[in-house]
Design a protein that fits this description.
The structure holds 3 protein chains of 3 kinds.
Chain A: H1 49-64, E1 69-73, H2 77-82, E2 94-96, H3 102-115, E3 122-128, H4 129-134, H5 137-146, E4 151-156, H6 197-203, E5 208-213, H7 217-227, E6 234-239, H8 243-246, H9 253-262, E7 269-272, E8 275-279, H10 288-293, H11 308-325
Parallel strand pairs in A: 1-2, 1-3, 3-4, 4-6, 5-6
Antiparallel strand pairs in A: 5-7, 7-8
Chain B: E1 2-6, H1 7-17, E2 22-25, H2 32-43, E3 51-54, H3 58-70, E4 75-79, H4 81-86, H5 88-96, E5 102-107, H6 121-125, E6 132-135, H7 139-156, E7 160-165, E8 173-177, H8 181-187, E9 204-205, H9 214-243, E10 251-254, E11 261-265, H10 269-282, E12 287-292, E13 294-296, H11 300-307, E14 312-317, H12 328-335, E15 342-347, H13 357-368, E16 378-379, H14 384-392, H15 398-406
Parallel strand pairs in B: 2-3, 2-4, 4-5, 5-7, 6-7, 11-12, 11-14, 14-15, 15-16
Antiparallel strand pairs in B: 1-8, 6-13, 10-12
Helix pairs in contact in B: 1-2, 1-7, 3-5, 7-9, 10-13, 11-12, 14-15
Chain C: E1 2-9, H1 14-27, E2 31-36, E3 46-54, E4 69-72, E5 92-96, H2 101-104, E6 112-116, H3 118-126, H4 132-143, H5 148-158, H6 161-182
Parallel strand pairs in C: 1-4, 4-5, 5-6
Antiparallel strand pairs in C: 1-3, 2-3
Helix pairs in contact in C: 1-4, 1-5, 3-6, 4-5, 4-6, 5-6
The chains are: A alpha/beta, B alpha/beta, C alpha/beta.
Chain lengths: ~325, ~425, ~180
């Protein structure tokens, strides 16, 4: 169950001032005693959605487990910017093995902790969309199938960002990446491709699946906390804008994530054992064009010549998602 | 206790005696009976506490072993051939991270063409992966090497691969002495790593190391393997004292001290070679053998000491470096550099072709008579007719072309 | 050293026969080695298994090219596989068949072929046409390389309960039938 959404109509903005909240309802991030699991000094870009998402998710997980957490991290931006040898910004036990094996490494960690009678220590595996949706997919599915006691968090910035913004199985249609440039007649990434890993996770009927973004801190933290109440395989898919790869202002990360939700392109939901248990309805329905115009990776849709047909297809996809998940208020 | 057992089952029982805490294995011929028997032992609680993971690929198997070992659990896996290749990225990762994982490799050929039978191309392809490589001559030695392997791995913080010939050893029933649990416990203390993932003392493992430090890290890996050249004989010696029989070590000489001709080999073929040596000795020929038990690190000094006095050395190996020559042969030549000993590279037993005493006798007659080439490999029992026909007009997969040449290619009708 | 080569088809327990033989020899204080030719596991395909028995440790592992004894579990192999390859003139063949050598066309091979209706005995005592244990009883009688007691003990160790007992009985019957021939 997500936390009750708070509406601040009287304020006229989306500001969520913590002074209005009961102390018990305040976010982990607002507390001085938060773990700061991903501490400052890492080398992420200004405005990096993944750094934000990882900090949010891990501090919430550390709170939920009273600091008894170990992490397996796939190769990618997060791994690279957080551990510029000989420095590290991680304040929990952390292992980076390979690109495609974070779920399997976590499986091994969970088994070891269990055999040692220390399954009070929980395991979190994390990676970007590349390491989760593509190269790590077999290991992810295996971990789900076995129902291993691992929470897997995917930070989805919709391309292989660390290696220079190449297309992944999570890259949305029409997006421009280094390998799906709008050259000639091509209008970015193809329609009809792509993998919906949250729904695939639901199809595995694991105990808990949820989607979240860095735009809603309460929601993300609540979902991490809920995930940690379960034993077995759990999956959290977090949309994290990448200023560099998406061509957005570094100050606009949270705003762009919110637009993805409000257009219906990124549905927020939870599922347990194969059934959707909650969705977050869209409060302010927004046309996809507003979201697309905010990102240079879609600039070719508004160039010379413009591609209103593509925009219309993307709008249709958003509408379909809204209907499918029942996101309209 | 001495029992008549299938090799795989004996090895599984030996592994169980070593008290592995996490077993992750994916089935592949000819290792399946090992992981099946271990599964039974865990399910029946005969092996406990132990988590047995049915993983979805060999890549996952080694990855899970990495996670388990990093948390401080004694981890084990087993594979062969294609499975070993599928986990190569993880093999290098494990050795680079210094994790003392032990793995059985039931030596099997690598495709294409697909072939499930024994040769050494799988393990040989990973000789540079940073793993220690030990080769068993018999099922008894396979049992003994696994027990030594855990101790060695944990002492030097490097993963160890125990190689045993697929089918030839894994599926052979023979007499094996399985040690008692308390004797193995005395030989192998619990795994207590210095670096471990622990929330009470968090650490970061696996950061990217740049040009400024990478060379030093890799040098240290090499230095550790070189140090193993001392550790391996020491552990073998302790083992012999504890269990009353020799096993493992770096090399094993057989009637080679005064030999003019010495045959060098790894694994089970040494049994047949020893029979042949005895027959030729009975005819007055001064011949001996050298079994290489540890291939990585390469026991260069021991090999040199064993072979330098010979007139000729015949290396019989079950793999080769395509486009180059022998692999073991190359390492032997390195050891004999400057000695003037003639080295012949012989490739035999590929894809499970039996190496018979008769063929070996013919080969050694040729060697002693000076009929073996020195500048290129000899392929034992090669059907030269077939290959010469194929070489006249090669195109596409050779296996299928051979059928064309033999006129046995199926046609629809 | 005594070398036995066992021929049959997948599903007839050829591999188990070699295994049991090696266990029996081991129990009597000898060294024994048993292994099959290895192929894809498929019911009905020709299978060969080997067993070496010796007073001394056995080092060689090549397939048995020159057996002392052949055990043939399936006579239909006679026309499909070169069963007698490597067998010396006068070498012993224990053949699972209810027919005579003449009927089988095997009365002039130069080998010493002894027939035993092992499948019939198996049907009678086990209710299933699996002749491997039966033939081992016959082998014990003909060669004395292993004792019947050791064969029976090996059978009982491998097959628990009724199946083990039935196989043991069938092996004994075969032994008694052929003991006369050997004598």
């Amino acid at each position: 169950m997500t936390a009750e959404r708070i509406r601040f109509y009287q304020v006229g903005s989306f500001a969520a001032g913590n002074r209005l909240l009961d102390p018990e309802q305040r976010t982990v991030q607002s507390r001085t005693e938060r773990s700061n699991t991903l501490t400052s000094g890492h080398r992420a870009c200004q405005g990096c959605g993944e750094a934000l998402g990882a900090r949010y998710a891990l501090d919430a997980a550390m709170r939920a487990t009273e600091g008894k957490l170990v992490a397996a991290n796939a190769t990618g931006c997060l791994e690279v910017f957080s551990t510029p040898y000989p420095e590290s910004s991680w304040q929990l036990p952390w292992l980076h093995s390979l690109f495609g094996n974070a779920p399997a490494v976590a499986t091994g960690m969970a088994a070891a902790l269990k055999v040692k009678g220390r399954d009070d220590i929980r395991v979190l595996a994390q990676g970007g969309d590349g390491g989760t949706v593509d190269i790590g997919f077999a290991c992810l599915s295996g971990m789900f199938e076995r129902d291993d006691d691992v929470l897997y968090v995917c930070y989805d910035n919709e391309a292989y960002m660390n290696t220079g913004v190449q297309r992944s199985g999570a890259t949305p249609p029409a997006a421009s990446t280094a390998t799906t440039r709008p050259v000639g007649m091509e209008a970015g990434n193809r329609f009809g491709q792509g993998k919906n890993v949250p729904l695939i996770a639901v199809a595995h009927e694991i105990p808990y699946v949820a989607t979240a973004t860095v735009a809603d801190l309460h929601d993300l933290e609540a979902k991490v906390e809920r995930a940690m109440t379960f034993r077995g395989a759990r999956y959290l898919h977090v949309l994290v804008p990448c200023p560099l790869g998406w061509g957005t202002a570094s100050s606009a990360t949270i705003q762009v994530a919110r637009l993805a939700v409000e257009t219906g392109l990124f549905p927020l939901f939870e599922a347990e054992h194969g059934e959707i248990t909650s969705v977050t309805r869209i409060r302010r329905r927004t046309p996809v064009e507003e979201y697309l115009r905010a990102q240079k990776r879609y600039a070719h849709l508004f160039g010379d010549p413009p591609r209103p047909d593509i925009v219309a297809r993307l709008q249709a996809a958003a509408n379909r998602t809204i209907n499918r998940f029942g996101l309209a208020e | 206790m001495r029992r008549q057992l299938e090799g795989s089952v004996a090895v599984a029982k030996a592994i169980a005696l070593c008290r592995p805490e996490v077993i992750c294995a994916y089935p592949i011929s000819p290792q399946t009976h090992i992981v099946e028997h271990l599964s039974d032992l865990v399910r029946s609680r005969e092996l406990a506490p132990c988590e047995y993971l049915n993983v979805e690929s060999e890549f996952a198997a080694m990855s899970a072993a990495i996670g388990a070992s990093a948390v401080g659990a004694r981890a084990y896996s087993a594979t062969a051939s294609q499975g070993l290749l599928y986990m190569v990225e993880a093999l290098y990762n494990a050795s680079g991270l210094g994790l003392p994982i032990v793995m059985t490799v039931a030596n099997r050929a690598i495709g294409s063409p697909i072939n499930i039978w024994n040769d050494h191309s799988d393990a040989m392809s990973q000789r540079d992966s940073g793993w220690i490589q030990l080769y068993a001559e018999s099922n008894q030695e396979a049992v003994d090497l696994h027990i030594q392997a855990f101790r060695l791995a944990e002492a030097i913080s490097l993963p160890v691969m125990v190689c045993m010939d697929g089918f030839v050893l894994t599926h052979a029933y023979e007499g094996v002495d399985l040690p008692a649990q308390e004797d193995v416990d005395a030989f192998l203390p619990p795994f207590a790593p210095r670096q471990v993932l622990d929330p009470d003392e968090p650490m970061t493992i696996g950061a990217m190391v740049g040009p400024e430090a990478f060379t030093e890290v890799r040098y240290l890996m090499h230095a550790k393997q070189m140090q193993a050249l001392d550790d391996i004989p020491a552990i073998a010696s302790t083992f012999a004292q504890a269990f009353g029989r020799p096993a493992g070590g770096l090399v094993r000489r057989y009637r080679s001290e005064d030999a003019e001709t010495i045959v060098v080999a790894l694994g089970s073929v040494l049994g047949t070679i020893e029979d042949v040596v005895d027959e030729l000795r009975a005819d007055g020929i001064r011949i001996g053998a050298l079994g290489v038990k540890t291939f990585r690190p390469w026991p260069l000094e021991e090999v040199r000491a064993a072979l330098a006095h010979a007139e000729r050395v015949v290396v019989v190996e079950k793999a080769f470096a395509v486009g180059a020559g022998g692999i073991v042969g190359q390492n032997v030549r390195l050891a004999l550099d400057g000695t003037g000993v003639t080295v012949h590279d012989v490739v035999a037993g590929l894809g499970g072709r039996p190496i018979t005493g008769r063929s070996l006798r013919g080969l050694l007659d040729d060697a002693i008579a000076g009929r073996l080439p020195r500048d290129r490999m000899t392929f034992l029992d090669l059907d030269t007719g077939i290959v010469e026909r194929e070489l006249e007009r090669p195109s596409g997969p050779h296996a299928e072309n051979i059928l064309r040449d033999l006129g046995v290619l199926a046609r629809p009708y | 050293m005594h070398q036995v080569r066992i021929h049959g088809r997948g599903g007839q327990g050829v591999v188990t026969a070699a295994e049991l033989l090696s266990v029996a020899a081991f129990a009597e204080g000898r060294h024994a080695q048993a292994f099959p030719t290895f192929g894809s596991e498929r019911t009905g395909a020709p299978v060969v298994a080997f067993c070496r028995i010796d007073e001394r440790p056995i080092r060689s592992r090549e397939p048995i090219a020159e057996p002392d004894t052949l055990i043939v579990q399936d006579p239909t192999l006679l026309h499909q596989v070169d069963l007698f390859a490597g067998l010396h003139p006068g070498g012993l063949v224990l053949l699972n068949s209810a027919r005579t050598l003449q009927e089988l066309g095997l009365d002039d091979t130069g080998f010493r072929i002894v027939t035993l209706p092992a499948t019939d005995l198996a049907r009678k005592h086990l209710g299933r046409p699996v002749p491997n244990a039966v033939l081992l009883g016959g082998f014990a009688a003909l060669t004395g390389v292993v004792s019947l007691d050791a064969v029976v003990a090996a059978i009982r160790e491998k097959f628990k309960g009724a199946i083990g007992e039935q196989n043991a009985v069938a092996a004994r019957v075969a032994y008694e039938q052929l003991e006369a021939v050997h004598a």
